[in-house]
Amino acid sequence: MSDGPLLEVANLVKRYGGLTATDHASFAVHAGTVHAVIGPNGAGKTTLIHQLSGTIPPDEGTIRLDGHDITRMSMHARVHSGIARSYQITSIFAKLSVTDNIALAIQARDGVGFGFFTPARSERRRYDEAAAVAARVGLGGRLLTTAAGLAHGEQRQLEVAIALATGARLLLLDEPMAGLGPDETERMVSLIAALKGERTILLVEHDMDAVFRLAETISVLVAGRIIASGPPAAIRADAQVRRAYLGDEAEH
Amino acid sequence: MDSKTTSPSATDDAPANPAGPLDHPLRWQVGVPLLAALVMFPFAANALDGAFYVSLASRILILAIAATSLNLILGFGGMVSFGHAAFLGVGAYTVAILMQAGLTSAVLSFPLAVLLSAAAAAAIGAISLRTRGVSFIMITLAFAQMLYFLAVSLKTYGGDDGLSLAGRSTLPGGLSLAGDTPFYFACLAVSAMVFVAVHRLVNSRFGHALQAIRENETRMEAIGFPVFRLKLTAFVIAGALAGLAGALTANHASFVSPSMMQWSQSGMLMIMVILGGVGYLWGGVVGALVFLVLEEILSHYTIHWQFFLGAALLAVVLAAPNGLMSLLHRRPR
Amino acid sequence: MTPILLLEQTLNGLQFGLMLFLLAAGLTLVFGIMDLINLAHGSLYMIGAYLVATATAASGSFLLGLAAGIAGCVLFALALEATVLRRLYQRDHLSQVLGTFAILLMCNEAVRFIWGAQPVALSAPASLSGPVELMPGFSYPAYRLAIIAVGLAVALALFVLIARTRLGMQLRAGASNRDMAMMMGADVRRMFTLLFGLGAALCALAGGMLGPLLAVQVGMGESVLILAFVVIVIGGIGSIHGALVGALIVGIVDTAGRTLIPILFEQVMGADLASAAGPAVASILIYVLMAVVLFFRPRGLFPATG
Predict the structure, then answer these.
(1) Would you say residue C184 has pLDDT above 80?
(2) Do B317 and C230 touch (CB under 8 A)?
């Protein structure tokens, strides 16, 4: 691993007709840390995640992962390079069991599914590993439950588990606490905290309490621009940030 | 065999790994007796002076292959292709054209038929699979229509009138496909092999990935599966199998014509798959069987058998939400 | 290739295109608003044509026959909707394909049973059977002009309906966001029934008017059905505007192409090659056009949603 940051975003621009959704955004994420991106609604957080994950291509700027330029890389290739996302609106395999959901991510990681004649179900190691990942996120007792049958909070856990199981070094978590009650939020915070050091996490979140507890670095996105980046204390004190966002926070 | 439903492990520490919606057991308890019955069938039919039924049975087996190949992409892959008959046509015409040129050996023409239909599927799929939903349905239709009109314009090979084959394809070692019964056994052998191959395929990692793409394509891309490549591979395999069915069709009817590739033929295949059960392993087979048997029985009783066929299909749609196989397995698909 | 030939072909294309529009309009609204894939749409066209033919023969008047035929077809369609089709609304598209295909088979056979397998005669009214001189040296059949006139009138009426009436507003809302429209109180059941009836009326009108030009026979619906689907896909599902544009494009390209392309080919390449390639290219042209449109605009030229 190189000395530099794991993820370097430089002057990213995305325009939709007259609207500039991402306006020369730049920031860096260091390996093993939790780096949060916060900002008011409409700041362009999801658009940013879409560009980092490869869902949409940026118009200008570069994204470097561990020194390699991945700006034009396809989404699935990016996962193999080490960057995977979770979704704000839960996107799981509703009809499949928890184990099977996670096993798919592991199957993707292990190489393209071109085994044509061996029954997938017979490859026990993958399902054992899936069970282990499930246990890690707190779904150990729900292995056989169909994903659609899980409670909302459990589905959010599964959402993260799937991204985790890809083995990606950098996880883009898009509002993992969306719609969670206090107990469930606590569980999610513990989960993310436990991943610190082992994985690198780019966390997009509205829950300020969780953000300030978890993040080593916070970047503030307003109208497509990163207006400030730094440790939580510095961000809290930053006048521009207070005006643009934390003041806005009071209206929530 | 691995294909049986895996029951929870006997050892206490191993986590249970039961079959789910992605798995499709073959059920040998049904398959083996069925195969035995199919092997016996021509002897029984011939004894009862029903040689015609052997020919009908061959036709059913061939269409079962075609329907199963469509089910692979439509049912398991979620790709509603409205141009599948085109690949049957490519396979059929390959055999017919080679035969007209004097090359009758099945060892040459059948693999070539499969290869050419696979190539056609690769070309058509590479473009069509860039689209989705209704666009995909209509683009596949468009390509099939293009191939249809192309065949019509090939005057050297009969054009609209079609092309007759001088005889059946020849096999090495003195084996002959010329009679109804030997040809039936050839069809049975091929369809059994295709069915087992498809069974292995859908239960493999590839098959699981394909079905998962049907369930949630976006997430599959997001966890690292090369979705386009996987869909195209499935599309090519399905096209190749359809080409094989086409090669057999050319032999069965000793005749090929552009109408084999018309959109109504593609529609017929789709109807068979939907009737049998989209995404069920036996869906294509059951659909082809029921459709053709119904057609046969009804046409014996009345000229207006199509009316009753329609009525029967309507009844199935209203009564069986996911095709006939869904009546047997209430598994959510 | 003379200017007169071009003009004639364009008019033919316009005429065919407008009739295609009648079919496509009903189909696109049913698909766009009711989310119903209706393969039996062509059957309504066929039944309409048969009823018009019979009524005309019985009454001796084309106009009367047309009116009676349309009315009969609408009644049939409403009965069909109330009994069978209503059960398919909630089902997935593939089930709808199977169900409406079954109805298609039943309609074909029922027609064959009632009217026999031979085509039924339907003639244009005597008053319109002669040619009209549009320009010195160019005469065009009066009947075809009448079709164009009727087609334009109906197109205008539909646009007024969609743009100016309350029902039209509900239809537009329904096409762009069905769930929202339902929540806002559109009486869905009534709207669906009305819509289906309207589609049937348009089909019957097209069938009756095209009857004298094309043969009134079993299976006549299938060939136009596929063209109608091509039209609505090019135009954008749920959009009447798109259906008109799509139908005119398809009508003109298909009709003119069939005549002009072989001529063009003959001038460019030898007669032999032209006679083989010409018809093939002319037939394929529509599909190539559709594939190109879909590739760049997967939702058609004027998608109703968003």
Answers:
(1) no
(2) no
Q: Which residue is listed with tokens 């088979």? A: C105
- Can you give the residue ranges of every domain in chain A? 1-82+170-252, 92-167
Quick: pLDDT tens for B95-132: 999 999 989 899 999 999 999 999 999 999 999 999 88
Chain C residues contacting B via beta carbons under 8 Å: 39, 84, 87-88, 91, 93-95, 97-99, 101-106, 108-110, 112-113, 222, 226, 229-230, 233, 237, 276-277, 279-280, 283-284, 287-288, 290-291, 294-295, 298-299
Chain A residues closer than 8 Å to B15 by CB? 99, 127-128, 131, 143
The crossing angle, in degrees rounded to 10, of helices C166-176 and C3-34 is 80
> Do B224 and A144 make contact, defined as CB atoms within 8 angstroms?
no
| Domain residue spans of chain C | 3-296
Chains A and B touch (3+ CB pairs under 8 A): yes
Q: Mind telling me how many Å the CA of A66 is from chain B's nearest CA?
A: 18
Using a CB cutoff of 8 Å and minimum separation of 24, what contacts does A41-44 make?
A43/A221, A43/A222, A43/A223, A43/A224, A44/A14, A44/A221, A44/A223, A44/A224
In angstroms, the separation between the Cα of residue B277 and the nearest Cα of chain C is 10
Query: Chain C contacts of B307, Cβ < 8 Å?
Result: 105-106, 109-110, 113
- CATH code of domain A1-82+170-252: 3.40.50.300
How far is A72 from chain B, CA to nearest CA, in Å? 15
Q: How far is CA A191 from CA A91, A246, A251, C138, C193, in A?
A: 19, 26, 29, 83, 54
Instruction: Please report, in tens digits, the pLDDT of each residue of chain A (252 residues total).
Output: 456 899 999 999 999 988 899 999 999 999 999 999 998 888 889 999 999 999 999 999 999 999 999 999 999 999 999 999 999 999 999 999 999 999 999 999 987 556 788 899 988 999 999 999 999 999 999 999 999 999 999 999 999 999 999 999 999 999 999 989 999 999 999 999 999 989 999 999 988 899 999 999 999 999 899 999 999 999 988 888 888 766 655 544
Please state which of the four CATH numbers 3.90.320, 1.20.120, 1.10.3470, 3.30.300 is assigned to the domain occupying C3-296.
1.10.3470
Return the pLDDT at C182: 67
pLDDT score of C178:
67
3-state secondary structure chain A: CCCCCCEEEEEEEEEECCEEEEEEEEEEECCCCEEEEECCCCCCHHHHHHHHHCCCCCCEEEEEECCEECCCCCHHHHHHHCEEEECCCCCCCCCCEHHHHHHHHHHHHCCCCCCCCCEHHHCHHHHHHHHHHHHHHCCHHHCCCEHHHCCHHHHHHHHHHHHHHCCCCEEEEECCCCCCCHHHHHHHHHHHHHHECCEEEEEECCCHHHHHHHCCEEEEEECCEEEEEECHHHHHHCHHHHHHHHHHHCCC
Interface residue of B265, B278, B314 to substitute, partner C, most C CBs within 10 Å: B314
Task: Evaluate whether ipTM surpasses 0.90.
Answer: yes
What CA–CA distance (Å, rounded) separates A193 from A213?
A: 9
Q: Of the candidates A80, A91, A124, which has its C-beta nearest B224's C-beta? A: A80
Using the Cβ of B127 and the Cβ atoms of chain C, whether some distance falls under 8 Å is answered with yes
Q: Is the pLDDT of residue B13 over 50?
A: no
Query: Which residues on chain B place their C-beta less than 8 Å from a C-beta of chain A?
Result: 2-3, 6, 14-23, 200-201, 203-209, 212, 215-216, 218-227, 229-230, 233, 332-333
Contact B309 C105 (CB under 8 A): yes
Distance (Å, whole) CA B291 – CA B272: 7
pLDDT tens column, C3-37: 888 888 899 999 999 999 999 999 998 888 888 88
